[in-house]
Amino acid sequence: MRIYDETLKKLFINYTIGSILAVVGVGSTLMVMALNIRQVDLLMLLLIQFFSFCIMLFIEYRAFQKDIYPIRLVFSETKVTEEQFYWALVQAKRFPLLTVKRIALPHFLGLSIPAVAMTLSLIFIDVLHIPYMYVVYALFGALLIAMLHAMIEFFLTLRTMRPLIHEMMQIGRMHGFHEAIRATNVVYVPMKVKIGLSVLFIGIFPVLLFVLATEVKWFAEGKNTFSGYWTWTIVVLVISILFSLFAARVLSEDVERSIEDLLQYMSRVQKKEYELMCDNVYIDEFSELTNGFNHMVDAIVERDEKNKQLLNSFISVMTTALDARDEYTAGHSQRVAVYAVEIGKRLGMTVEQLTRLYRSAILHDIGKIGIPDHILLKDGKLTDDEFAWIKKHPILGENIIRQVQPIEEVQDLLPGIRSHHERIDGKGYPDGLRGEDIPLFGRIIAVADAFDAMTSDRPYRKGMNVEKAISILLEGRGTQWDAQMVDCFIAFLQEREQEKVS
Asked: What are the HD-GYP domain coordinates in residue numbering (predicted)?
């Protein structure tokens, strides 16, 4: 609540400063210096301006209360829904725009309409002795002043709201409103629009103000301003507008292009394409941003390499632990991983996919760590109860690897570990999956695993020859094993034999 109260205080101070600069500093000074009227009429006009200012403050205060209400709920209520929080955060981010809206409507209209009404009434009843044309000048001046005030308030409010928005996001994270926070990360005011309008207004405001002051002064002195004066005024005004538009476009495009370059490289980082911005062509603060981006990419690449090393070390430790229990399983896992990669190559997998496939295959039997020694290391045929224990190893393996954090690093390895004993006809285990419902890695590893199991020597039997194993794979093609995986593997074996002959 402290941040909220401090923000309200700063907004009030900003509004007071903006009002003094715009309404009092520019408006009243212009009226006093430009108007050639009696002191009593001038005093009456200042009085009208004061009463109109009070009316404007009341109307604008009501509008401000309406705009701030959703934000106040977040800080005053103990229980806030995610939807309420979302709209409050949107309101906070849009608050500079709402400030401009308040100045354009309740501020400008709340000030000008009562002032015009009172001034015209006093002129009509012959209490105020000024020309009606002054009312037109006043309206134009009020519009200029409102635009100046809106621009000042926009940038002051933009700066003031940032700590409040940060505090609201902290509150949102405490309540678990992460999706609501992410949903508000949109562009509310494009940089091109913000810079363009600001430069344009700064460029033409002094000219318009000077034109208005000169017109009022010459009108008060009874001079004819529709001779050569307006011709030069229009020329100067057009030149100012064109120059401001050109300057706004050049400045905004320069900033926008620099931002687009950074966003382009950042989008590549999101896709894990870690490319440095090698050509630092900037001579302003974007040069530092580019250097910072390059340092960030270097740090990410370094961390990514360390994560890969840690994951590879983990895999080595796990396979070594399995080796210590069952020498057959160790060599078996290595060979299955190599066979699986050969199948993956013939499926057209990328290097990254092959790396994940290799890791999944080399860990496919890791769940056997949880199988009792008297079952895992038994020389003879297993009983039904003992085989039921063996059938648990895919799930045990998945559960073991799930303990790795962050889980994203090993998430892709889990399907192959769990499903490498599934069958195409649905008679496999542990889930009885059928056909393409079996994950791709599981279908690949199943073929590699079966071939190596058939051709490897065990203490209780000698491994069969390659031709016999191939014939069994062909018999189970489309029923026990995926037909495409069998074809790819047999193609690999044939290529290997041809290489031996040659």
From this structure: 307-502
* CA–CA gap between residue 354 and residue 441 (Å, rounded): 10
CB 413 within 8 A of CB 397: no
Segment 358-407, tens digit of pLDDT: 999 999 888 888 888 777 777 777 888 888 888 899 999 899 888 887 78
For residue 104, the 8-state DSSP code is: I
Q: Work out the burial of residue 366: count CB atoms within 10 Å of its CB; fewer than 13 is exposed, 13-18 middle, 19 or more buried.
A: buried
Give the side-chain half-sphere CA count within 13 A for 149: 30
Per-residue pLDDT tens digits for 330-347: 578 888 999 999 999 999
**Verdict on whether the full-model pTM lies above 0.70:** no
- Structure token pair of residue 460: 């209780």
Fold of 326-501: Hypothetical protein af1432 (1.10.3210)
Plot region of 366 (φ>0 → left; ψ -120 to 50 → alpha; else → beta): alpha
Region for residue 111 given its phi and psi (left: phi exceeds 0; alpha: psi -120 to 50; beta: otherwise): alpha
- Give strand pairing partners of 461: 458
Measured distance CA(329)–CA(335) in Å, rounded: 10
Comparing CA positions, the residue from 458, 480, 378, 394 lying closest to residue 430 is 394
Cα gap 501→324, rounded to integer Å: 37
Backbone angles phi, psi at 404, to 5 degrees: -70, 135
31 pLDDT higher than 60: no
Domain boundary assignment for the chain = 1-300, 326-501
Question: How many angstroms separate the CA atoms of 61 and 106, rounded?
Answer: 9
Q: Which residues contact 411 (CB under 8 A, 6 or more apart)?
A: none
